[in-house]
Amino acid sequence: MSVGTFAKRDAYGRQSLLGEAAGLRWLAEAEAQGGLHAARVERVSETELVEERISCTRATRDAAERIGVALAHTHAAGAPWWGCPPAGWQGAYRLEHSRTLTTSAQEAPASWGAFYARFRIMPAVRVLCDGGLFGAQERALFERVCAKLEAGAYDAPQPELVGAQGHAVARLHGDLWAGNLLWDANPQNHTGGAFIDPMAHGGHAETDLAMLALFGCSFLDTILASYDELSPLADGWRERVGLHQLSPLLLHCVLFGGHYVGETLRVARGYA
Hints:
By secondary structure, the chain is an alpha+beta fold. It has a single domain (57-181, 197-269), classed as Aminoglycoside phosphotransferase (APH), C-terminal lobe (Aminoglycoside 3'-phosphotransferase, Chain: A, domain 2, Alpha-Beta Complex), CATH 3.90.1200.10. It contains nine helices and ten strands. The strands form four sheets. A three-stranded antiparallel beta sheet has the order 1-4-3, covered by helices on one side. A three-stranded mixed beta sheet has the order 2-9-8. Strand 5 and strand 6 form a beta hairpin. Helix 2 packs across helix 7 (220-230) and helix 3 packs parallel to helix 8 (241-256). The protein is globular, with a radius of gyration of 18 Å. The mean pLDDT is 92.
């Protein structure tokens, strides 16, 4: 069932569209292993991305069960190293309406904690400090969190299926809030959902799951239960949800200012 294409345009020629297309293609590679459908890229340039238009339908518990299974398979497709970009691209994701860059790691950090501290937490903190939204006290708070991350205090095993496929690093969508997980009406898509708008990279599978929880997702408990049944999550994963949400919370502080600061600092204090 074809419903045509959808075009995104960027007159400023930022690198995000090329990275987004590479991410969609990288995620689509996992479909052969049962991974979640990713919108197909028709063509891409620095200023335009034309992709498959996903026809959406209402969320159902049955589709949520299938999405949980498919997402586990996507993660289990693996990635070469912590923070690696999708295959075929070496740039940085630029957030819409912002100069903030979300960079990939061109050389492999030693651990997830090191990657998360160096490439996700502190770059955003520096932007917020430079802009005056954070001061010395807030910077010190995040430096304490990052010291624990670097020391491995929050490193945890990947869900079981990732390791069973021989991977230490999962293949992530990278910006998996509910708006980027579409409930696909196409009956030929047996995974129940479809990815759009990725910031794909190699990371910890818990990051995608925590992002789904951040702003609410229909039938999230069903998605998580289905995922966990196929690919059991490591002990204590619920206690790490806030930690994995810190990066998107910080980016929302950058994009939208003070509205998110209180929540972000509250979460950070729990891991300092």
